[in-house]
Write a structure and sequence with these properties.
By secondary structure, this protein is mainly α. The protein has eleven helices and no strands.
């Protein structure tokens, strides 16, 4: 717990070389432990640092990450969407577009995880008009596609007037 907390603080250090070294050291020490590695992914996904979404996107290609592994998906994609509000809710809508893209990829692999991950988008009515519109646009794009029953139901409920 102490080490992961220290890592979370170091990841947000303004000197990127310090953050990079801390992440590499932690990975080298713990890469054999899948559960600890999930924390490693999560720390990076939730870090409030410049270009956070770029870091998350890069981690999608990490050899230890797999869209078919629910724990990894929750740690990285769920961590970003649920626990990185300043970057998920970026005014350009990039966080919403990213989640929508990931939902399309995850839904055929694991409909239950996809249905859980969509929750931050389904809460669009809680936000100001611009973000509401961006979130709703992503939900409508998803709704126009062939989705699992799980994800489709979550989106239909969210888009229901009321």
């Amino acid at each position: 717990t102490d080490k992961i907390t220290a890592l979370a603080l170091l990841v947000m250090h303004p000197d990127v070389t310090i953050a990079t070294k801390a992440l590499a050291d932690f990975y080298n020490a713990w890469s054999h432990d899948a559960l600890v590695l999930d924390k490693w992914f999560s720390v990076q996904a939730t870090a409030d640092r410049p270009n956070a979404l770029s870091y998350v996107r890069a981690l999608l290609d990490h050899p230890q990450f797999s869209l078919s592994n629910p724990n990894k998906v929750r740690a990285l994609i769920g961590g970003f969407a649920h626990s990185n509000p300043s970057h998920f809710h970026a005014l350009d809508g990039s966080g919403y577009a990213f989640l929508s893209e990931m939902l399309r990829a995850i839904d055929p692999l694991n409909a239950q995880i996809a249905a859980r991950l969509v929750i931050p988008l389904t809460r669009f009515r809680r936000f100001e008009t611009k973000r509401q519109s961006l979130m709703q646009e992503q939900l409508e794009q998803l709704a126009s596609q062939k989705l699992s029953k799980n994800l489709g139901e979550m989106i239909r409920k969210a888009l229901k007037p009321g």
